[in-house]
Each structure stands twice: as C-alpha cells, then as structure tokens.
C-alpha cells in the first residue's frame, strides 16, 4: 500500500483568522452599530489572512468590489506562496443579531483549491436545502416539502413530527413555514445566520435536522465547504430578485433553473473551514471577555480527512497588544 505524505492543514491557520475577527467584532455586541462591528471584523480578518502561507483569491467576499474596500471579490490575500486557493469569507455571519445582542453570530472563512468554488456573480440569494450525513442521499430541492421531510425522516429513523426544521424568519417564507407546520414538523426560526444554520443540520448535538428556504448565495458556498468536511449535503438554485437580475444572469451565461449540488458549489473535497462564535448559540459559545483578555470557541474542519476539531482558546490582551495591530 502506498501512503501519501500528509499535507498542511490550512484550517489550523484559518482559526487564527476567525478568532481575530470574532474578538474584534465581539466588542460591539448589543451596541446597535452594524457598520462599526463589520469594519472591525473585516480589518482584523484581512490582517491575519495576509499572514497565511498561501496564494489566495477571494471568490466570496464582502459585497461588490466597488462597494467593499477590503475583502472584495477578486482581492489577492496571503503571502503569495503556494498553495493557490479560492477564499470565501463572512467576517460576521449574523451582523444584525450581533448588533442587537442576539444569538448565533459567528465569524467564518473557507479555502478550496483554485478554481473549485462556485462564483455567484451578482446573485445575492439562493433557494437552499441542507442536511447532515444520515440524509445526504435523499434530498431533492425540486421535490415538495412533504416529500423531503418524509425522506429525511425515513433516513434518520424518525417520524416527521420528530424533525426540527431551521428557516430564516422572512416574509418570503410564510408559505414554507405554513406548509412545514401543516405537516407537523417542528420549526426553529432564526433572524439571520444561515451559514451556522446549515452547519447545525450536520451536527447532531444542535438538534437541527434540515434547512429550508431562500438565503444568501455567498453563505451557501461557505456552508457547502463546511458540509463537505462534515459529510452533509446541500442543494441550491439561484434566486433572482427581479426580472432585471434574471435577464442579467441569462446574459452572463448562468443557468438559473439548474440545481446546484454540493459538488457544484465547491468541486474539490480538499476544503478547509473555520468558524468562531461571536455571540453564543447552539453551534458555538460566544466571545467571553475577562479583565485580562478573552476566551473564544471555534470549530475547525478539513474535508480531505473529515477531521473536525473544537478549539477553546484563551487570549491575553497584554501580550497580544505588544505584537498585534488589531485593537482588541
């Protein structure tokens, strides 16, 4: 038997990135200032990403290039050395919950080999369905809600009434929510944060079985990288907001009715993902400050090996302040 030499686990570098962003953003919990929180997290994330040994290009960044001065789509990050990678970032998944002092805001970043991440272009929204490993082979985004719930319940050896569905609390989901309620499944409504929501479907301790609904397309790519590591599955379909966006997509060559499978969203299994909690929730504990520093709770994943690590870290600001440009 031939054994290949283990390659470097870049996820262990990425957790420093998400920790820095979470520590910077955590100061703004409940202060009602989404813009200041986002700026703090972006500044911290970019600074540490540029220290990582990689030649990275942002595919999923902070909005359109002309609107985001940093972490914009197409920006090159890292020290320029191999490997060549695509980067997906969400310095704060759940900016509004963070600003309002609510649960489940996290900082996330993912890497995959160059050219393997789906580029959503101008499309902000995507219809999604996501599940964990037990139900990975039974979902179909073109099937009815009822058929999907029955299939997931059978795969998990449960009754539909035992399932918990996670859905973004939006007016566009009124019919979806009504249908899930009619079928008898339980519902967890969330104000924001569908990266964390997708991850929860693949982590039994969270009690979430399936994600339905229209959420962010960039968040879908990030979640796909994590689900590659966790053994879960996701399907999506681009969701144009209006006729003008639909026409633009057609002109750009996007197949708007195509089902985007996990392999379409990130075609390589060699993915890396890290997330750090900013405010507490089912997935991760939030940043906890002390007189001397802070503690963070992170999750680190690698798709090639399927290894998932939980990392609890203590940060001492007196020491960090002497070597870091980030104002913790």
Annotation keywords:
328 residues, alpha+beta, 6-stranded mixed β-sheet
List the helices and strands and how they pair.
Blueprint lengths: L10 H16 L7 H16 L5 E6 L15 E2 L6 E10 L1 H5 L6 E8 L11 E7 L13 H12 L7 E5 L5 H10 L2 E5 L3 H7 L9 E7 H14 L2 E6 L4 H9 L8 E2 H4 L6 E6 L10 E2 L3 E10 L4 E10 H7 L5
Parallel strand pairs: 1-3, 6-7, 6-8
Antiparallel strand pairs: 1-2, 3-4, 4-11, 5-8, 5-9, 9-10, 11-13, 12-13, 13-14
Helix pairs in contact: 1-2, 6-7
The class by helix and strand makeup works out as: alpha+beta
Average residue pLDDT: 93
What percentage of the residues does DSSP assign to strands (E)?
25-35%
What is the CA–CA distance across the termini?
49 Å
What is the helix content? Answer: 25-40%
Overall 3D form: globular
* Strand elements, count: 14
Structural notes for this entry:
- This protein is of the alpha+beta class.
- It contains ten helices and 14 strands.
- It has helices at 11-26, 34-49, 95-99, 145-156, 174-183, 194-200, 217-230, 243-251, 262-265, 317-323; strands spanning 55-60, 76-77, 84-93, 106-113, 125-131, 164-168, 186-190, 210-216, 233-238, 260-261, 272-277, 288-289, 293-302, 307-316.
- Helix 5 (174-183) links the parallel strand 6 and strand 7.
- Helix 1 packs antiparallel against helix 2 and helix 6 (194-200) runs parallel beside helix 7 (217-230).
- The longest helix is centred in the N-terminal third of the chain and has 16 residues, at 11-26.
- The radius of gyration is 19 Å and the shape is globular.
- Residues 1-5 have low confidence and may be disordered.
């Amino acid at each position: 038997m031939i054994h290949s030499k283990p390659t470097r686990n870049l996820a262990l570098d990425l957790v420093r990135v998400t920790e820095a962003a979470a520590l910077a953003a955590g100061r703004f919990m409940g202060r009602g200032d989404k813009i200041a929180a986002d700026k703090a997290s972006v500044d911290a994330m970019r600074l540490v990403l540029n220290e990582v040994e990689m030649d990275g290009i942002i595919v999923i960044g902070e909005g359109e290039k002309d609107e985001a001065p940093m972490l914009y789509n197409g920006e090159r990050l890292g020290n320029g050395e191999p490997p060549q990678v695509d980067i997906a970032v969400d310095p704060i998944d759940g900016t509004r919950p963070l600003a309002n002092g609510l649960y489940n805001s996290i900082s996330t970043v993912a890497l995959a080999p160059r050219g393997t991440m789906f580029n959503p272009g101008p499309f902000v929204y995507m219809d999604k369905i996501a599940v964990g490993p037990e139900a990975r082979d039974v979902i179909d985004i073109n099937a009815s809600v009822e058929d999907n719930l029955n299939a997931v319940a059978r795969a998990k050896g449960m009754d539909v009434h035992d399932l918990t569905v996670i859905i973004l609390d939006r007016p566009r989901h009124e019919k979806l929510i009504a249908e899930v309620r009619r079928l008898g499944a339980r519902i967890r409504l969330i104000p924001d944060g569908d990266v964390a929501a997708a991850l929860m479907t693949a982590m039994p301790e969270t009690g979430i079985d399936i994600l339905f609904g229209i959420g962010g397309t960039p968040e879908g790519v990030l979640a796909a990288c994590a689900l590659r590591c966790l053994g879960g599955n996701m399907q999506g379909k681009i969701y144009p907001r209006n006729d003008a966006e639909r026409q633009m997509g057609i002109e750009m060559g996007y197949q708007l009715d195509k089902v985007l499978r996990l392999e379409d969203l990130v075609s390589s299994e060699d993915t890396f993902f890290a997330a750090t909690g900013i405010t507490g929730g089912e997935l991760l504990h939030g940043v906890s400050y002390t007189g001397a520093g802070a503690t963070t709770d992170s999750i680190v994943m690698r798709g090639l090996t399927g290894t998932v690590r939980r990392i609890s870290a203590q940060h001492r600001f007196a020491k960090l302040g002497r070597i870091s440009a980030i104002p913790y």
